[in-house]
Amino acid sequence: MTDQPQRKDDTAERAAEKPQATQPESATVEVKETTPEPAAPLAPLENNVHDVALVIEGGAMRASYVSGLVNVLLEQGIFIDYVCGISAGATVATNYVSRDMARTKRSFVDFAANPQMGGVKSFLHKHGFFNADYDYLRCIEDGSMPFDWETFQANPARVRIQAFQRDTGRTVVWGRDHMHTLEDLMACVRASSTMPGIMKPIEIDGQVMLDGSLGAGAGLPNHIAEDDGFEKLFVITSRPAGYRKGELSAVKRRGIIRVMKNHPYARNAMLTRPERYNEELAHLEELEKSGRALVVRPREMPVSRTTRDVKELEHAYLLGHEQGIAELPRWREFLFGE
């Protein structure tokens, strides 16, 4: 976004040199106001995988690696007709459905260089470590992170995004019936990603919403696809093979109890999340052993959920992309039976 050099406007000078045309006195000129026709909506897109669900785990900036994996699907023209995600996985899912490879990468790599995204200064000014007011909608409105809403609408894929109601303890899963406008969609994505104490929450349907990882599945979204009747799952996680969540330390437990003292449902969800996540992970491994799930796990995870260094995030993205290319034959066999 650079200012263009100004040129001297010689329009007036040229107009003075040019003879002026005149209308005959008896002539009348009818001026009609015209309204530009709105752009026609895109024709419906086609997907080529209909019996497998794409399931995407969150993990904040660990999604830089996940995005590299997902972009291999887009590059190879692998368009899955059902996509679900939680937290950062919701952002990756919507980028995938909009078939935007550039945004898929930028959301968790280049965007980290934008000072409005968040950081310690944002946290101290009570905007959250991740500035949710900016990161989901305003960054689209100011043009720094455009979203291809037209392609998202034209894609017939079913979309599922999960969030957690802070004051009822209810897990909520939204579909396209809650995504009529871009603003609706970004509200769902933001709600699904709202980590307690790190991001400012919003209300949807009169309920304060928190990160979907506090709800059913504890962060792994495969149950969403299973509840919708899918027998085959293509699951992308943000943790390497063998990972298990450890017990919360006494310090973390006290911190959760103190910060969430007025919100018992959210407090309990946070305190029990490690155990629930490990149980869901064991279930996912059983699905994998039975042949119902292909689970794509990072070979390594070089970044954390709060990494802001663009070079480190770029490295994670490239590792994910490299892994996706290497594993592509295995993916194709599962998805297409090739």
TrEMBL record:
Question: Is Ligase given among the entry's keywords?
Answer: no
Q: Which residues form the active site?
A: S87, D211
Task: Give the residue interval(s) assigned to the motif GXSXG.
Answer: 85-89
Superkingdom assignment: Bacteria
Using the UniProt annotation, give all residue ranges assigned to the region (Disordered). 1-43
Keywords on this record?
Answer: Hydrolase, Lipid degradation, Lipid metabolism
PNPLA domain: residues covered? 54-226
Basic and acidic residues biased stretches = 1-17
Q: Which PANTHER family match?
A: NEUROPATHY TARGET ESTERASE/SWISS CHEESE D.MELANOGASTER, PHOSPHOESTERASE
- How is this protein named in the record? Patatin family protein
